[in-house]
Amino acid sequence: MKKKKSPVHKSKHKGVPYEPSTKPFWFIFTALYLFGCVLIFFSAIGLPLDIIEIPNFNFKFNFTTYTPVDLIMSRPLFKTLSAKSAFQLDQELMSSGEFSIDQLMEIAGLAVAQVVHKEFPPPPPPATSKVLVLVGPGNNGGDGLVAARHLKLWGSYDPVIYYPKKSTSNPLYGRLVKQLQDLDVTELSTLDEVKHLLDRRNSGVALIIDSLFGFSFKPPLRPPFDDLIGYLSSNNESLPPILSVDIPSGWDVDDGPVGVDIGASVLVSLTAPKPAALKFTGSHYLGGRFINPHIAEKYDIGDVIAKYKGDEMVVKL
């Protein structure tokens, strides 16, 4: 039996078999590759082109927000607030917005507590989950104190606070501490006590809340926090998981890690993410839902604020 020959397409040129060309496919691939290179290059040099938009394809890209790392790693993209913009926004909320610092702190602290409950659910009652809250001298520390109060009131968590440098300039912080004292929340007074609590032989600590520094932090670290953050950084593999409030303590707000990294596995960005959050690789939440649409538009964070749905006070990014 004769073997069937596979059909040969006839070419326009006599005697030359026709073979489908792969050139169009190579052309498309090359064009997409070059377009990607252009995006990365423009992003790297900070070219002042705000947005590329192709309406028919529902495509939009903002050069001023995303970094080359985001493009290559395909990490979630979101708008951010620089340290300067975050400070200005806070001032606007408390001036023309008529918010008090107490209100903002209560909303932010509750958001932190809610993320704790989502990421680190408590054991069945009557057991409780022990949480060490590291409290800084400013508003970030206040958020941690509020979170500790909510966790204690829920009855399923047993917060312990370490507040090495109490704020004396604002009576608000004294009131927050008094509220915890009335709930019989334990307070540690030295770093040695912290180390003893976290020793695996003594502990049962399920989580560390890092509410030491927020967006106003500027390196370098100073006493007594340098020793504390140094301890967390050098021992993070053997310590309980760490949840950081707004930014991992020790990070530069705009640039990220600057020599030390406490190894936080969860981050709760407040108001809006800060630029360093783009370099965070753990579970990332947004909390502090107090931004009205006008302020969101003014600071170009409407897209990230829109991620909240319904009655949510925290949202995973």
UniProtKB/TrEMBL annotation:
Q: What class of enzyme is it?
A: isomerase
Catalysed reaction, written as an equation: (6R)-NADPHX = (6S)-NADPHX; (6R)-NADHX = (6S)-NADHX
- Record keywords: Cytoplasm, Isomerase, Membrane, Metal-binding, Mitochondrion, NAD, NADP, Nucleotide-binding, Potassium, Transmembrane, Transmembrane helix
Cofactor binding mode and count: Binds 1 potassium ion per subunit.
As cofactor, the record names:
K(+)
Where along the sequence do coiled-coil regions lie? none
- Membrane spanning residue stretches: 25-49
Q: Which SUPFAM superfamilies match?
A: YjeF N-terminal domain-like
Q: Where does K(+) bind?
A: 140, 210, 249
Q: Where is (6S)-NADPHX bound in this sequence?
A: 139-143, 214-220, 246
Domain YjeF N-terminal positions: 86-303
- PANTHER family the UniProt entry points to: NAD(P)H-HYDRATE EPIMERASE (PTHR13232:SF10)
User: According to its UniProt record, which protein family does this protein belong to?
Assistant: Belongs to the NnrE/AIBP family.
Q: What does this protein do?
A: Catalyzes the epimerization of the S- and R-forms of NAD(P)HX, a damaged form of NAD(P)H that is a result of enzymatic or heat-dependent hydration. This is a prerequisite for the S-specific NAD(P)H-hydrate dehydratase to allow the repair of both epimers of NAD(P)HX.
What one GO molecular function would you report for this record?
Answer: metal ion binding
Keyword Transcription present in the record's keywords: the answer is no
The name this protein goes by in its record: NAD(P)H-hydrate epimerase
The terms describing its cellular component in GO are: mitochondrion
Q: What EC number(s) are associated with this protein in UniProt?
A: 5.1.99.6
Location in the cell: Cytoplasm; Mitochondrion
